[in-house]
Amino acid sequence: MSTKEGVQGAIEFTKFVIALDSGLIAFMTGATFLGKLHSTIEIVAAIIVLALLAASLCAGVLVYMAAITMIDDADYNLASSHIRIPGQINVVCFAVGAAGVGVLAVLELFLKNNAA
């Protein structure tokens, strides 16, 4: 059985991932980064990464809302599908999206500058 502290820890972790998602989305949509994307494959990759980060952000909000409701109801079941499934989507989409941002950033900001 989960405790209230476990749910509060999940809330804090979710808020952290939401903040990171927001920062990466801001970085990806910044004019400096978008101006460096020229080929179709780069633009498609950027759209896929943004979709993953947006999915992570939405899933994180669902986890946050469910966890707050659990605390209010004094039901600390972290195995609930209302927390577990969006939580997995949140973490996996964030990890893949953040890796995608890293790959795109290395390609665009470092490798293309050295090739020119």
Task: Write a brief caption for the model.
Keywords: Membrane, Transmembrane, Transmembrane helix. By secondary structure, this protein is an all-alpha fold.
Keywords:
116 residues, 0% strand, elongated, mainly alpha, membrane, transmembrane helix
Describe the overall structure.
- With 116 residues, this protein is mostly helical.
- It has one domain (4-110).
- The protein has 4 helices and no strands.
- It has helices at 4-28, 31-34, 40-73, 81-115.
- Helix 1 packs antiparallel against helix 3 (40-73), helix 1 (4-28) runs parallel beside helix 4 and helix 3 (40-73) packs antiparallel against helix 4.
- The longest helix is centred in the C-terminal third of the chain and has 35 residues, at 81-115.
- The N and C termini lie far apart (59 Å).
- The mean pLDDT is 88.
- The chain crosses the membrane at residues 16-34, 43-67, 87-111.
- Keywords: Membrane, Transmembrane, Transmembrane helix.
What share of residues is helical?
over 70%
Would you report the number of β strands? Answer: 0
- Percent range for β-strand residues: under 5%
Give the count of structural domains: 1
Poorly predicted spans: none
Assign the structural class, choosing from mainly alpha, mainly beta, alpha/beta, alpha+beta, or little secondary structure.
Answer: mainly alpha
Spatial shape: elongated
User: Nearest-angstrom radius of gyration?
Assistant: 17 Å
Distance from first to last alpha carbon: 59 Å
Mean pLDDT: 88
Tally of DSSP helical segments: 4
How would a crystallographer describe the biggest sheet?
none
Which sequence of SSEs, written as H and E, runs from N to C? Answer: HHHH
